[in-house]
């Protein structure tokens, strides 16, 4: 009886040892599978990371290449448009590097000698036709007028005396001729006196001021110029090619 119980206990102990050994083996097996799975997952992650970087680099390179090609196309299109418009412009318009803008320039000159008494305008001033520009001292012209007027009065007295002398018909005729001459001289003197005031010959702008007040001028000397900006034109030379 006791022997039977002893054998049964021994068998149970052996059975437990065997089960423990089997369980340990299975745990080691499962741990080995887990380690392999972990290594494979890590390897997969490591292998995927360079691939994602490569894909990202390829996408970036593709965008840069597309932008470069697009910019090149736009530049070529702009250059082509520029050439087209230049050719179209050249067909419709002609050009030259030998051209100038011309206009009517009126020289204002003194007609009598004398000192410039006053300048009434400044350079670049807009003036109208017949507007006063300057005056010249007219003292000598005024004296000349007075002398001629005095000569006319004296000649008129002579004519009055000769009218009562029939025998002085020749002298009377000469006196009358002298009166006509003096009247012409008086008209000339008055004309020259008016030339002491210088007026603008046309509408325009004062340019090329050449004298100042106080300077002595002679007949024909240019004092200034008047430029008419309302009447301009272009003088140009074009090649026949």
What does this structure look like?
The chain has 241 residues and is α+β, with helices and mostly antiparallel strands. The protein folds into two domains: 1-95; 100-234, Beta Barrel (OB fold (Dihydrolipoamide Acetyltransferase, E2P)), CATH 2.40.50.100. It contains three helices and eight strands; from the N terminus they run αββββααββββ. Helix 2 (139-162) runs antiparallel to helix 3 (169-194). Residues 1-8, 17-31 and 42-49 have low confidence and may be disordered.
Describe the structure in brief.
This protein has helices at 2-92, 139-162, 169-194; strands at 99-109, 114-119, 126-127, 132-136, 197-199, 204-207, 216-217, 222-236.
State the shape: rod-shaped
The CATH architecture term of the largest domain is Beta Barrel
Reading the helices and strands in chain order gives: HEEEEHHEEEE
Tell me the Rg in angstroms: 61 Å
Instruction: Write down the overall mean pLDDT.
Output: 76
Low-confidence parts: 1-8, 17-31, 42-49
- End-to-end C-alpha gap: 142 Å
Strand content range:
15-25%
Largest sheet, described in full? 4 strands, antiparallel
In total, the number of domains comes to 2
Total count of strands = 8
At the first level of CATH, the class of the largest domain is: Mainly Beta
Structural class: alpha+beta
| Sheet with the most strands: spatial strand order | 1-8-6-3
Helix content: 55-70%
CATH fold field value of the largest domain: OB fold (Dihydrolipoamide Acetyltransferase, E2P)
CATH superfamily of the largest domain: RNA polymerase II/Efflux pump adaptor protein, barrel-sandwich hybrid domain
| SS summary, helix count | 3
């Amino acid at each position: 009886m006791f022997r039977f119980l002893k054998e049964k206990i021994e068998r149970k102990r052996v059975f437990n040892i065997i089960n423990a050994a089997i369980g340990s083996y299975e745990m080691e097996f499962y741990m080995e599978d887990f380690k392999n799975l972990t290594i494979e997952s890590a390897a997969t992650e490591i292998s995927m990371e360079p691939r994602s970087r490569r894909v990202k680099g390829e996408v970036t390179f593709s965008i840069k290449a597309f932008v470069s090609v697009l910019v090149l196309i736009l530049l070529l299109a702009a250059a082509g448009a520029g050439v087209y418009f230049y050719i179209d412009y050249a067909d419709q318009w002609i050009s030259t590097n030998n051209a100038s803008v011309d206009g009517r320039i009126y020289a204002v000159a003194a007609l009598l000698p004398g000192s410039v008494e006053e300048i009434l305008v400044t350079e670049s001033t807009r003036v109208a036709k017949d507007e006063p520009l300057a005056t010249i001292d007219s003292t000598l012209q005024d004296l000349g007028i007075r002398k001629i007027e005095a000569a006319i009065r004296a000649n008129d007295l002579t004519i009055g005396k000769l009218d009562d002398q029939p025998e002085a018909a020749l002298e009377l005729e000469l006196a009358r001729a002298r009166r006509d001459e003096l009247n012409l001289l008086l008209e000339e003197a008055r004309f020259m006196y008016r030339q002491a005031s210088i007026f603008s010959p046309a509408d325009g702008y004062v340019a090329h001021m050449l004298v100042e007040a106080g300077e002595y001028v002679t007949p024909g000397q240019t004092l200034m110029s008047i430029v008419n900006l309302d009447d301009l034109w272009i003088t140009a030379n074009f090649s026949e090619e």
